[in-house]
Amino acid sequence: MKKSDTLTKAEMQVMNALWEMPEGGCIHDIIAHYPDPKPAYTTVSTFLKILLNKGFVEFRKLSGKTHTYYPLISKENYTNQVMKDVKESFFGGSGSSLVKFFVEKEKLSESEIRELIEIIKENNK
Fold this sequence. Notes:
Layout: H1 9-19, H2 27-32, H3 41-54, E1 57-61, E2 67-71, H4 75-91, H5 95-105, H6 110-123
Antiparallel strand pairs: 1-2
């Protein structure tokens, strides 16, 4: 994935709102998903233009100047791309090094470690 294919924190907030709206939404719908203080209409509009240019969203024209925006990539697919890039860039492509990092740095609880072990066992069947 190229650097331009990754989302900034602000772009991610817009995408998270859109991912929660399966049918898409207008700018006011997106703003409603933000916690207070809510961003300005023009701010969200600017980020949507950036996301359009990056190829992450598309829109349908409703009536007048109203557009419904919707994501072109699912959250799951985007997460997979980002994690693959992180694994390649920071862990030499090693999945075990990636997991080891999180186990050591995140101070996982015993129950979280047991859960990881079960996931690994299930996926190795």
